[in-house]
Structure formats: C-alpha cells, structure tokens
C-alpha cells in the first residue's frame, strides 16, 4: 500500500495546473463568478480547449482518443479541475455514450461518432426515461418498428415519449432505448438507437424545475425515421449497453473532488459570515461540527473511490460498488448545499432569477454566495433521484453484493 | 387535559378552510405569486369583512372576537395548507402582538385598522450582520426635538411591499449588541427617507431591503424605548405561529406523498408497496404528529414566564426545523423526477418548509437557546 504521489505524478500535477491556469477561458470564469446561466457555447468552450489538447476524455483508451493516463493521473486531473472550479465536462457524450460506442459499436460507428463526440461537435442527450418508466427503466414503451424505405434501405419508425432529458434543448443527437420486440420478456426486446435530433418528428419541450431552471425536457418522437445502421450492438440486446452505460454514469456521479472544493468554499464563506454571537460562523461549535462530519464522511468516500480506482487499474470494470459511490457521493453533495443555505441565514430567501440586479448597484442584496444558495439546494435534490435513485442503488447492492 | 377547540375556534377554522378551498387553490396561488403586486388586496379585505378573521385573536374590548394565540395557531395552520401569501403573520401576530403587550397609547386605533383590514404591518428587525441575534442592531434612533430620527438598514423584511406600516427595532441607547436600549417604533412606510428595494423570495413571498435615511418619526411612533423583553415575547409568539404554519405545510407534504405513492406504478405495482418507502412515510407521519404536539405545547406555554416560554418555543422550533427538512426532502425524493418540477404543488410546499427552517432562528440557534435556558440558567 502506498498512497503518495510519485515524482512523475507530482510533475504531472504541475503540468495540469499550469495548463488550466493558462488555458481556461476567461469569459467563462467571469460568467461563473457572476452566477450567470450558461449558454450552449459556454459549456462547450472549455470542452473544445481540452479536445484540442487531447485531454477531454481521460478514461477513454488511447486508440479512441483518450490521453492514456493512469488511474492516479485521472484522479489528479479531477482534483485539479475541481480545485480550479472548471465547468464540468457534460457526461452524456464523454462518460456515457462514448464508451458504449467504442465497446459495442461497429468500426463504421466508431469512426462516425467518436471524433465529433470528442471535439464537441455532437451534443448528446440521454433518452432513457419515460413518463411510465423511471426506476423501472425496462418497462419503457417507445416503439421502433422496422421497415424498408423507398430508397430500399432499412429503417426504424420510432414513436414514443422520453422525459427528464437533461439539456436536450441544445441536443444534436440523442441515444435512446427503444422497444424493438414487444413480445419478448421486457429486458430482451430493447435496442439502443442513436437518433439525430434534427430528424422530422422530434419535438423538445421544456420542464421547469424547482429553482426556476430550464435544465430538463420532454422529448416527443413521432414517426421518426432512423436508419438501422444507427443501432448500437445487436437488435433486442440494447439492455446490455444500457446497463454498461449506467455503471459508468454512476461512478462519475460520486463527485469527490468537487465536493472537496464545496467544503473548502463553505469554510471560506463561514469565515466571513458572522454567527449568532458576532464571531465568524466557522467558530460556532455546531456549524463547525457539521463541517467536520462532512469532511470525515467525504474522506471515507474518497478512500473508497480510490480503492475502486485501484481495482479498475487492475482490470476490474466498475461493478455494483459504483452504487455505493453514487449513494454516498450524492448525499454529501446535498449536505454541502444544506450548509451553504444555512450559512446564508436571512439572505437565503431573496430570489434573483429574472430579477433585475444591475442598474441598482448601490444596494446589493446580501452576500454574493447567498444568491444561488436556495435554488442550488432545491436543484441538488435531483442527485438522489437521477442516475437510478438512491433507493434503487440500495436495491442493487442488496441483490448484487449482499446476495439478498 | 383538553386539546379540543372551542366552538368559536372550530368555526374560525371552518370559515378559513372553506374560503381557501374555494378561492386559494394551487393555480390561483400561482397567479397571485407571479402577479405584479404579489398578493390579493381584495382577499385581505375579505379576511377582514367577510370572514372577520383578522380580529379573531384580539379581545372584544379591542374590537376583536375575544380569542388569542390558539386562534392564530388555527389560522396559520390553514394558511400553511394553502401556502397563503397575505401578511397575517406580520400584521396580526406580530403587529397585533406588539399592540397587545406594550401598553402603547395608540394600540386601540392601530388594532382597529388591523381588524378592519386597512392597516398592514411588516416587521423590520433583522440586519445584515446580525443573523438571528435581534438585539444586534446598527440601526439607530436619535432623539430629535419631540420625535426621533432613524438611520439604518433592515434585511429581508418579509411582507414589506404590502405593508402600510413597519415595526422597526433600533438602538435608542447602548452598544450594538447590548440587551438594553433596543427601541421599538411603529413607522408609517410612506415617510420621507424610507427607501425600499422590493424583491420576490424563493418561496413565492415578497420582501424588501429597507433603508432609513434620516427618517424623522413623531414622538408617538415610539412603542418602547427599552423593549428587548417585548421583542423577545412577540418573536416567540411569531415563532409559535410559524410552527403552526409549518404544521399545515407538513400535513400537505405528507398527504401529497401518500397519494402520489399509492397512485404511481413502477415494477408493476404502486411504489407505496415498497417497504422502504412505507417506513419512510411512517417516519414522516411521526415527524408531522410530533410537530403538531410541539406546536400545541408551545402555543399553550406562550402565557408562561419568559424563560419557560422561550424554552418551549425553542424546543418546538428545533423539532419543526428538523421535521421540515426530513418531511420536505423525502416528499421530493418519493415523488422522483416529478418532485423536481415547478408544475406540481409538492415542490412549492418543500420550498416554504425550507425557508421556515431558518425563520426566526435555525435549528442550531434554537438548540443553543434551549441548552442555555435549560442547563446554564439552572447552574
Ligand atoms: C434533474 C433530472 C435530470 C434527469 N436527466 C435525465 C436524462 O438526461 N436522461 C434520462 O433518461 N433520464 C433523466 N432523468 C430521469 C431519472 O433517471 C429518473 O427520474 C429516475 O430514474 C427516477 O425515475 P422516476 O422519476 O420515474 O421516479 P419513480 O421511479 O417513479 O420513483 C419514485 C420514488 O419511488 C422509489 N422507488 C421506485 N422503485 C422502487 C423500488 N423498487 N424500491 C424502493 N423504492 C423505489 C424511487 O426511489 C423514488 O423515490 C433525470 C431526472 C432528473 C430529476
Ligand atoms: C429482552 C426480550 C424480552 C422479551 N420478552 C418477551 C416476553 O416476555 N414474552 C414474549 O412472548 N416474547 C418476548 N420477547 C420476544 C419478542 O417479542 C420477539 O423477540 C419479537 O417479537 C421479535 O421476534 P424474533 O426475535 O423472532 O425476531 P424476528 O421476528 O425473526 O425478526 C428479526 C428481524 O426482522 C425484522 N422483521 C420481521 N418481520 C419483518 C417485516 N415484515 N418487515 C420488516 N422487518 C421485519 C424484525 O423487526 C427484526 O429486526 C422478548 C424479546 C427480548 C429480546
């Protein structure tokens, strides 16, 4: 056992730090600091910088465009990007569909989809959930029926509705689970399809969430024609891809490095905000204790994640242990938002979205960090719901790990 | 032992409940919240004239119906169930509270305005630096001829955009955090030098930052020159009333979750059949019932001496704060993705519950107050 970084790792860390310092888009940093809403190009600008450098997909094999980093280097990377408050790279292309394509796709599919996924030219959306199929994903109903087109080629005719589709308002392509055999057992009649969102019959409608954000959408698919060559892996075997993707999705969700940064931020906030007795809030024994407990829980999660990473380095793919990381990681993220809201005190109440903040700089309302405290607290309730709810993760551990 | 309501109290409850059922459904409330004014002045008038509830908690001599804190509790719980925005807490519970307990000369005429629905009051007590220590005041009141001059900045004054009057705490003497020299003033909001910046709050309410810039108020604006004990008493009453509102909110969070879980099917069955969710909903039920008990307890003890009263209210607020978090978070969780949408009422109850957690002091604040009253004082 050895947890120290080698001299090579330390040199790598310095290289990463210097790269971020020199190349992180300045305009993006400003927008983040102002708490402004991100446009599509904002998300993509950092993605593009990294793509050019070859660092956008740390976990991908080198032959598909990954940087060939060791698991320790990947760990350093996530630490450093979180420390520098870099916007996260959206997971749908890089962490989710990319690995499915290079694992299950044909050579043609790899060549067609992997380069634009890396470069950011395809914005992917995840079309898994449906109104009637959430936790029970396999009960999905979106139908894909095969037919021969006038051009003599084979197509699927897709009909159904997807929901909760994150940032689909910007989407170029959507990867969907569809039912290709209505008569098979529910998990056996599903296929994994890539659908161009510009196809006729695709409609995206916004869903507004608790903090006032437009982050998720309904996606309606009405007589959408999809070429058969856009199916990944075998027909009716899409569940295999689906499960593979979900395990990858879950390990990303733990967010240890970002939570570390979150706790550091709480310490900063609480050292300037005043507590009830007029001293810094961080001196308040009750508040301090909660931050300490959070740090300890995060340390436990971090070392559990490191053990998982070491396992992966030794060739074990992310298995049902990733459910553990998801449960604890999301709980910690939620507790961080609770403490930020608590630190805001009265100033957690003002609501700023769509509210004119400029033009009256004479009297800013409350401390800057407080503006997003409540909406973020509300928004982050999602993390224990999506990616397979935490109840479902516990069911998975019960079944797959404990054999219950 | 009697936890039953009198006939009059039951009548108040039924009147309020049926008005709100008719006129304050979730869609109507959504429209109110997003309207320019942010409240329904005509409803306020109806509360005064049609329902007569604005007088429920005042004695008959003062033009009321002869009730008290229990009536406030009943009304606030019903308001919680409908997420009512209109300023009952600021006007009747707090404004009325100051009038009842202060021996203020103008009390009768202010209460007349309150009961009649023409006077609306917001409580300007919090300051940016003070967190939940309301005696921490930078706002000053300086004697000037017969009257006073106010200067300072009050934070997040809930209901101020609808208010005709403000009750303002300000230093009439002493240093920033002293117990002595906490003055209380009733101030006409239209006086020159009062600058407000109005904004919505995350739970759909409206509030203001209020700045006093050399505001001259007449001598009869003074409710108390050294009034911390009075402020503590009124805030305790307000906290108990907010507890009652929380009970209304919590009941709706719990009921809404039960209904949803019984009707939402996954894996071929209602999700209410999963034992882990059943136990969660049982724990939510326990939280709600204990919140009801604590609200009753605190409301009854409002009449006791200051230390007993404060201890009871803090005990209640600790339990209520925890219940708001537990019940609110689990209501969202059990609703799955639907819980995250702005469209469903459940999220709006969660948002109100989340702000109530910190209103008049967080769980930590009240736990500390309870500890010091219960251990340090005895030692
Ligand atoms: C902000 C957000 C973004 C999302 N983004 C995407 C996206 O981009 N693409 C996509 O496809 N989907 C997305 N989702 C959907 C997400 O994956 C689902 O919300 C999730 O799978 C839960 O499904 P549901 O909402 O239908 O809840 P339900 O399945 O109805 O669950 C309701 C409650 O019942 C519990 N429950 C259900 N079954 C069981 C059981 N067997 N045992 C115990 N408890 C159970 C759940 O844990 C939950 O608490 C997103 C969701 C959110 C909130
Ligand atoms: C100190 C002590 C004194 C006792 N005194 C008496 C006595 O005076 N007279 C007498 O008759 N008995 C007595 N008992 C027995 C007691 O009533 C039983 O232990 C009790 O009913 C539990 O039964 P069990 O031990 O067989 O556990 P089990 O029934 O086997 O339960 C084991 C675990 O499974 C859980 N469980 C069981 N069913 C469910 C379910 N449907 N859903 C979720 N969880 C479930 C239980 O909660 C428990 O955690 C005593 C027990 C103790 C420990």
TrEMBL record, chain A:
Entry cofactors: FAD
Domain Acyl-CoA oxidase/dehydrogenase middle: 127-223
Limits of the Acyl-CoA dehydrogenase/oxidase N-terminal domain: 6-121
Example GO molecular function: flavin adenine dinucleotide binding
Family annotation (InterPro entries): Acyl-CoA_Oxase/DH_mid-dom (IPR006091), Acyl-CoA_Oxase/DH_mid-dom_sf (IPR046373), AcylCo_DH-like_C (IPR036250), AcylCo_DH/oxidase_C (IPR009075), AcylCoA_DH/ox_N (IPR013786), AcylCoA_DH/ox_N_sf (IPR037069), AcylCoA_DH/oxidase_NM_dom_sf (IPR009100), Mycobact_Acyl-CoA_DH (IPR052161)
Any one GO cellular component localisation term in the record: plasma membrane
Keywords (A to Z) from UniProt: FAD, Flavoprotein, Oxidoreductase
A Pfam short name: Acyl-CoA_dh_N
Domain Acyl-CoA dehydrogenase/oxidase C-terminal: 236-401
Similarity annotation: Belongs to the acyl-CoA dehydrogenase family.
Protein known as: Acyl-CoA dehydrogenase domain protein
Organism, as annotated: Caulobacter segnis (strain ATCC 21756 / DSM 7131 / JCM 7823 / NBRC 15250 / LMG 17158 / TK0059)
Organism classification: Bacteria, Pseudomonadati, Pseudomonadota, Alphaproteobacteria, Caulobacterales
TrEMBL record, chain B:
Keyword NADP attributed: no
Superkingdom of the organism of origin: Bacteria
Pfam families: Acyl-CoA_dh_1, Acyl-CoA_dh_M, Acyl-CoA_dh_N
Gene3D superfamilies recorded: Acyl-CoA dehydrogenase/oxidase, N-terminal domain, Butyryl-CoA Dehydrogenase, subunit A, domain 2, Butyryl-CoA Dehydrogenase, subunit A, domain 3
Cofactor(s) this protein cannot do without: FAD
Domain Acyl-CoA oxidase/dehydrogenase middle: 122-215
InterPro entries cross-referenced by the UniProt entry: Acyl-CoA_Oxase/DH_mid-dom, Acyl-CoA_Oxase/DH_mid-dom_sf, AcylCo_DH-like_C, AcylCo_DH/oxidase_C, AcylCoA_DH/ox_N, AcylCoA_DH/ox_N_sf, AcylCoA_DH/oxidase_NM_dom_sf
UniProt keyword terms in alphabetical order: FAD, Flavoprotein, Oxidoreductase
Domain Acyl-CoA dehydrogenase/oxidase N-terminal: start-end pairs: 6-83
Keyword Kinase: no
Family listed: Belongs to the acyl-CoA dehydrogenase family.
Molecular function GO labels: acyl-CoA dehydrogenase activity; flavin adenine dinucleotide binding
Domain Acyl-CoA dehydrogenase/oxidase C-terminal: 226-362
Protein's name in the database: Acyl-CoA dehydrogenase domain protein
